[in-house]
Task: inverse folding
């Protein structure tokens, strides 16, 4: 497994979500500043369709799940049925803005300088102590979904 910054981009024409063998790609999202695991099963949304859909239609996020939306400076929760925590991260993995408990039917502020948004279950940022200025990274892996450790 390779350890990389959040702003990693694949070669043109190759999607983030699935590898050559068709298996979904999952990432571990870690707050390197605090040594805290934010998500063990984060999925990358890279296509326009994936980014527009986001978490709409889901009933919630399980502990350890996350959605990473590339090329994103703000999010909305219209059409969602649950609150989320959101991290906005710059190209070097620095947290530029956090929003805890963003309720349904809301719009986040624009996070100038952000390159991606990481949507997490509500309460994750408080539990891990993640704040603006922290550094986060992705540990990319392929394969079947692994259960979140209890």
Result:
């Amino acid at each position: 497994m390779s350890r990389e910054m959040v702003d990693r981009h694949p070669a043109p024409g190759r999607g983030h979500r699935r590898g050559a063998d068709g298996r979904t790609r999952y990432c571990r999202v870690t707050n390197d500043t605090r040594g805290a695991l934010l998500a063990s099963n984060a999925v990358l949304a890279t296509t326009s369709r994936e980014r527009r859909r986001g978490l709409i239609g889901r009933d919630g996020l399980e502990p350890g799940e996350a959605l990473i939306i590339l090329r994103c400076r703000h999010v909305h929760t219209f059409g969602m049925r649950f609150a989320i925590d959101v991290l906005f991260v710059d190209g070097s993995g620095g947290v530029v803005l956090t929003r805890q408990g963003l309720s349904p039917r809301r719009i986040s502020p624009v996070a100038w300088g952000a390159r991606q948004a990481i949507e997490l279950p509500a309460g994750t940022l408080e539990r891990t102590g993640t704040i603006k200025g922290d550094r986060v990274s992705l540990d990319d892996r392929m394969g079947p979904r692994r259960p979140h450790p209890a």
